[in-house]
Amino acid sequence: MPVLEAHELVKHYGSVEALRGADFTVNAGEVVALIGDNGAGKSTLVKCLSGVEQPDSGQILFEGAPIRLESPVAARRLGIETVYQDLAVAPELDPAANLFLGREVRRSGLLGKLGMLDKAEMRRRATAEFARLGVTLQRIDVPIGSLSGGQRQSVAVARSVVWASKVVFMDEPTAALGVVQRERVLDVIRRVRDEGMAVVLISHNMPEVLAVADRVEVLRLGRRVARFTAAEATLADLVGAMTGALTQEETR
Amino acid sequence: MTAEEEVVNGGAIEKPTLGARLLGANTFWIGLVLIALCVVFGVLEPTAFLTLFTVQTLLIETAVLLVLSVGMTFVIITGGIDLSVGSVLIFSGMVSAKAMEWVSGGSSTNAGWGVILFGLVVAIVAGTAWGILNGLLIAAAKIPPLIVTLGTLGAALGAASLLNNGSDIRTLPSTMRTTIGYGTSFGYVPNLVIVAVVLTLIGAWLLHTTVFGRHTFAVGSNAEAARRSGIGVTRHLTSIYTLTGALAGVAGFMSLAYFGSTTISAHSTDNLNAIAAVVMGGTSLFGGVGTVLGTVIGVFIPAVLKKGFNIIHVQDFWQMIAVGAVLIAAVWFDQQRRRSRNR
C-alpha cells in the first residue's frame, strides 16, 4: 500500500521549472531509489514531500488521504524524516545532543517543567540507538564536528531513522563515505525497511541503487519518466531512462 | 569493530580530539592566567592587594559589567553581537530615575522601598523593550546584529539624553544608595555583588542545563540544522536579545544605585568590555561554543589587571594594552581550534 504519493507536482523557482508535473509513489516496507540526472528535480521533489518547500500545484497523498505539508515539523509529526545532503547537524554539539535536537528529554517533575535537560537519559538512549543501528563512535561526549565525515553522516542518518515511523528520505546518504561506512549505512537502510518503514534513497551511484533498492523511479526534466523493479532492471535501463533514451510513461 | 575500520577511522579521529581538548583548555588556560595575575600582584604587594577592601571594591566594580556580560554570553553563543548594552543600561537608568522622581513628586531622595522597587521594574521594562526591538530586527527582519545594535546603541543613548536635556540626574533615593549601592550583607559581602552572583548563577543554569540553553548552542552552531529540527530559531533569537536587554536594564539600576547618578558618559565602552570579557572567556565569536564560567573569568582579568597596576603604580593604560593582547590571543586560539576540527 502506498504510504506517500505525489501527483503532478509543479514547482517553480522564479523562471526555472524544477518540477513539471512529477509523480512519485513509495510503499511501506520498501526501498525506492529516486534517480535522475543533475537538475532532474530530485531534490526539489524531496523538499516538497518533506515539507521544506510547498509545491505550486499538484497533490500529495499520505496513506491515501490528501495532505498539505506546511513545514518539516508537520512532516515529522506524520513520521516523515529526512537525511539532508548537506548534513544538517550542529557541529559543536555532541552526538547525543544532535540525536535529540528539538526533541530534548527533560527531567521529571518540577525541574523538567523549568526546562532542565535529562542529559544522562539522552546519552543512555543515544548509546542504545547507535548500537542498535550499528553506528560505532569512539566517544559520545565530543562535538560531532570533531568526528570523521563518515561518523557524522552515520549520526545524521541515525537521527532521522530513530524518529521516523513511516518514511525516511535520504539525499545522497553515502556520498562522503568510505567503503566500510557506506556498507554500514546501506545495512541501516535495509534494517529500517525490514521494520516496515518506507525508505526513499536519492543516489547517483547506480550499483548502489541496484544493490539496495526494491524499486527505482526515474525523474527527467521535472517529470517521472520510468519505474523499474530493481531485480529486473539493468544499469543500461537506468542510464537510458535518465538520459531520455528510454521513456516508459507518456509525456503530457 | 573490525581492524579495517580502525584503520579507516584511526587517523581521522586523533587530531579532532586534540582540537576538542583545546576547546576545554580555553577556559582552563584563561582561568590559570587569572590565578597567575592574582598571585603575581599578591606577591608584589601583599599588604595592598590581598586586603578585604581591595577584594570588595574589585568585586563591586565588576558587578555591573558581569551582569551585562552574562547576557552577552548568550548573544555571542548564537553567533550574534550586542553593541547596545551600554546605551540600554544608561537609558534604563535614566527612565528609572525619571520614574522615581515622578512618583515622588519631585526629588526622590527621601523615597521609600515602594518607589525603589517601582524604579527597578521600570528599569527592567525599559531594557527589555530595547531587547525586544533588537531581537525583532535581527531575528525577524534579518538585519545583521552588528548593524541593528550599532543603531540602537546610538538611539538608546540619544533617547536617554533627550529625557533630561543631556544632563545627569543625581537625586536618587538615599535608601537605594546605602542598601543596594554600597551596603553589605553577612558583614563583608557587598549587596551589589550578591545581585550579580545570583544573576550569573541563574544565567549559568539556564545556559548549561536547560532546553533553552541547548537551543542557544544549536542556533549558534548551525541555525539551519536547528530550524530543520523544529526549533523556532526566530523566536529563540528574539528571546535571547530580549534577555540581554532585560539584564542591561537590571545593570542600569545597579549602576544607578552604585554611582548615585545616571552616568550618561560613563558607559560608552561597556559594550566592548563585555564582548572582550565573553570572548576572552572562551566563547566563540563564530557561535556554538561558550561558558558562563569563562565569562566570569574574562570579566575579572581586566579588572584584576587594572587594580593590580594601580597598586604597583604602573599607569593603567598598560592594562588596556594587555587586555587587547589577551583578547586577540583568545580569538586566535579559537580559530586554530576550528581549523584543526574542520581539516
Automatic annotation (TrEMBL), chain A:
SUPFAM superfamilies on file: P-loop containing nucleoside triphosphate hydrolases (SSF52540)
Keywords, in A-Z order: ATP-binding, Nucleotide-binding
Ubl conjugation found in the keyword field: no
Single GO term (MF): ATP hydrolysis activity
Signal peptide positions on this chain: none
Tagged with keyword Nucleotidyltransferase: no
The ABC transporter domain, residue ranges: 4-246
One Pfam family in the UniProt entry: ABC_tran
Protein name as catalogued: Monosaccharide ABC transporter ATP-binding protein (CUT2 family)
UniProtKB/TrEMBL annotation, chain B:
CDD domains: TM_PBP1_transp_AraH_like
GO MF terms, alphabetically ordered: transmembrane transporter activity
Primary localization class, coarse: membrane
InterPro entries for this protein: ABC_transp_permease (IPR001851)
Membrane topology: Multi-pass membrane protein
Pfam families (alphabetical): BPD_transp_2 (PF02653)
Record key words, sorted: Cell membrane, Membrane, Transmembrane, Transmembrane helix
Transmembrane segment boundaries: 22-44, 64-91, 111-133, 145-164, 185-207, 240-260, 272-305, 317-333
Species the sequence originates in: Labedaea rhizosphaerae
Lineage, uppermost ranks: Bacteria, Bacillati, Actinomycetota, Actinomycetes, Pseudonocardiales
Entry's Gene Ontology cellular component terms: plasma membrane
Record localization: Cell membrane
Protein name: Monosaccharide ABC transporter membrane protein (CUT2 family)
